[in-house]
Specification:
Order of helices and strands: HHHHHHHHHHHHH
Largest sheet: none
Number of helices: 13
Shape: globular
Number of strands: 0
Strand content: under 5%
Distance between the termini: 49 Å
Length: 252
Amino acid sequence: MPLCYCQILRCAQNDSVPSCLHGIADTVSPNSSCGTFSVFKSPMGCTMLVTIASIILSYVLGSIPTGLWLGQWLRGIDIREHGSKNIGATNTLRVLGKGLGAAALAGDAAKGIIPVLLVARLSDWPYAPVACGIAAIVGHLASVFLKFKGGKGVATSMGVFLALAPIPILIATAIFATVVGATRMVSAGSISAAIALTITVFALPPHWATAPTHLFPDVWTLRVVVAILAALIVIKHRSNIQRILTGTENRF
């Protein structure tokens, strides 16, 4: 079980407690049955606090505008003023070149992987990896650093599901590469990958849908989460869809 403040803050009568905590013990009545402060006496309450903190931290990590900050720090360029004006890896590649584009892609994917595999471990709630992954994606879509504006969430979603559902996301990535190779439109590949991921998690047997990490408590949670996030990705690409239909979408 993860280390919790409930397990650290013991009543002042316990000699193992640092002297700095005795002042706290003077103002908080200890629980006689377990020797912990009454304000921290509920393990469930402590777990909830740690889980909420993990989700908030995941959101903040997801909010980091990788491509934007790379352009501003290394080139003095605001990518929101160039190309598609998006903060994602595709526009970073288009405006800043392959090197920084690849760095932005890796950074955005890491924003999804780290919350699921590392931050979620702070909590013992079974759904913490899922919640932290969703929070990271929401952070990219509505960044706290950008007045709750953001990117389209494709690379961060890829990182999240690379940790949560590796086999489906690898299949979706293959579809993405195929469509981009055929059309030279990243937007078409992203939309196709989102749809392919949804189909894959419904089509695969439950064991394979979450293998090998098995971080989803049940396969239907996976299916519902993927369907919702895929719909969000498609919605975020609605202007791209209009340009594809009119033949004016950007190509590589």
